[in-house]
């Protein structure tokens, strides 16, 4: 191949456009991984409500900074939403609705950017909000919308631990026990996620408890 001035110019332009893109993707991935790891530590390993809140509030600041640095990336938005929803879960009550509404808006924005990001985590997370938040006039809870989003997550990640857990938990809350057993069993058999050992261990404990409740409910319904 003869390297003309035009060819050399094209190669130089390719280098200057692609290398920063890869660097940016790596930086976003590293930032998101940091949010994931700290969230798992807070949720599953930090004892006590006050300590959890202090840690999650600090992580909210980090998440907001990550989103500000990457305004058109779905992954940081998803994790900012998850962190705010976790804060709301710790606080509970009406005072948590502000964080829940903000989390909802973040998930919706991330879906506009990339509905498949993080294996459909925005769909699963949004669905979980819809079935756990009170319905109107207190909140925006809606079981129909919850199921729509949870099923959308399963289409993207049919064997994923979170997609199956959240849909299984939704079915458990709806007293659809046989269906809940099916999805919670799939969640319990989900493959381990790279670098997510703390999160997976904690999630498997939640799955174990939910599956036991679903099996107990199914057994009672059968008699």
Give a brief description:
With 223 residues, the protein is an all-alpha fold. It is built from nine helices and no strands.
Secondary-structure blueprint:
Elements: H1 5-45, H2 49-69, H3 74-91, H4 97-113, H5 117-132, H6 143-156, H7 161-173, H8 177-188, H9 197-221
What does this protein look like?
Helices cover 79% and strands 0% of the residues. The chain contains nine helices and no strands. It has helices at 5-45, 49-69, 74-91, 97-113, 117-132, 143-156, 161-173, 177-188, 197-221. Helix 4 (97-113) packs antiparallel against helix 5 (117-132) and helix 5 (117-132) runs parallel beside helix 7. The longest helix has 41 residues, at 5-45. The chain is globular, with a radius of gyration of 20 Å.
What value does the average pLDDT take?
Answer: 89
Termini separation comes to 78 Å
Strand content: under 5%
- Give the beta-strand count: 0
Extract low-pLDDT stretches: 1-24
Structural class: mainly alpha
């Amino acid at each position: 191949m003869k390297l003309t001035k035009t060819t050399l110019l094209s190669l130089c332009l390719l280098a200057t456009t692609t290398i920063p893109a890869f660097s940016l993707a790596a930086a976003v991935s590293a930032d998101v991984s940091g949010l994931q790891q700290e969230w798992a530590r807070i949720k599953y390993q930090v004892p006590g409500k006050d300590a959890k809140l202090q840690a999650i509030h600090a992580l909210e600041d980090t998440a907001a900074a990550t989103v500000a640095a990457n305004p058109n990336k779905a992954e940081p938005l998803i994790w900012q939403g998850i962190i705010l929803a976790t804060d709301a879960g710790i606080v509970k009550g009406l005072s948590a609705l502000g964080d829940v509404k903000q989390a909802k808006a973040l998930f919706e924005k991330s879906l506009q950017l990339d509905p498949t990001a993080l294996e459909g985590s925005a769909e699963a997370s949004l669905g979980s909000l819809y079935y756990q938040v009170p319905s109107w006039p207190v909140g925006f809870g809606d079981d129909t919308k919850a199921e729509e989003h949870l099923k959308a997550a399963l289409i993207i990640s049919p064997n994923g631990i979170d997609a199956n857990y959240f849909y299984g938990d939704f079915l458990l809350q709806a007293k659809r026990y046989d269906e809940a057993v099916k999805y919670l069993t799939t969640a319990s058999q989900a493959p381990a996620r790279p670098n997510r050992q703390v999160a997976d261990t904690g999630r498997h404990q939640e799955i174990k408890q939910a599956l036991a409740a679903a099996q107990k409910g199914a057994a009672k319904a059968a008699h």
